[in-house]
Amino acid sequence: MDSNAVLDVALQGLIIAAKLSAPVLVTALVVGFAISLLQSITQIQEVTLSFVPKAIAVALALLVAGHWMISEIVSFTHRMFDMIPSLLNGG
């Protein structure tokens, strides 16, 4: 297994991690920003006001994107297992 193969596997792993985390992180970012804007306008500084809507939005994002996320990670795992013989043989 040469360094190019290691870098390729690492790059694919980082890309799949970014793709899988994007729906949840973007949802939390957008909801957090909206709640922060609402808090700054109304000057209500309640901790649960920012936590509860974010938790609900992230749960909804996982419900919506969950099937796609599972199919992506299963596809990635199949590709990695299919690459094992070529990585062990060096070609």
TrEMBL record:
User: What InterPro entries does the entry give?
Assistant: Bac_export_3, FliQ
Question: Per the UniProt record, which residue ranges are transmembrane?
Answer: 20-39, 51-70
Question: What is the annotated localization of this protein?
Answer: Cell membrane; Bacterial flagellum basal body
Give a GO biological-process term: protein secretion
Transcription as a keyword of this entry, yes or no, is no
Q: What does this protein do?
A: Role in flagellar biosynthesis.
Which PANTHER family does the protein's record reference? FLAGELLAR BIOSYNTHETIC PROTEIN FLIQ (PTHR34040:SF2)
Q: What is this protein called?
A: Flagellar biosynthetic protein FliQ
Organism expressing this protein natively: Mycetocola miduiensis
The lineage, from the top, is:
Bacteria, Bacillati, Actinomycetota, Actinomycetes, Micrococcales
Encoding gene per record:
fliQ
